[in-house]
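Sequence in, structure out.
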Amino acid sequence: MSDSPTPIILFDGVCGLCARSVQFIIRHETYPIFRFAAFQSETGRQLCLRHNIDPELPGSLVVISENEALLRSDAVIAIANELGGLWRGLAFLRLAPRSWRDWCYGIIAQNRYAWFGRHTECLVPPLGIQSRFLP
């Protein structure tokens, strides 16, 4: 699963912000780069367990690439870098201490349901890209 050269993004499938983030990534990819799995899916749970991430507390966006798991702000920076173009400019955030970046990330993560809503079901991928969403 995570040994694939194609990065996998793990996201909270019931989080409104996370669903919008996935849609944003899909819209802004120059070509299909990422695959996706909700923390709540079987694949998501297995990847969490493999990388010592608690699948019951999906408070972070996770990028799994080449058998490495990037969390929180590191994941956001990795995604922006892969999107390329102007988004690659977010790499300057690496200059800030990870503790500061993750603190900011944590504020958003703690409030994501209140600010962006919570769905009762996981995101259903649109036709044409369903193969990019892992079961």
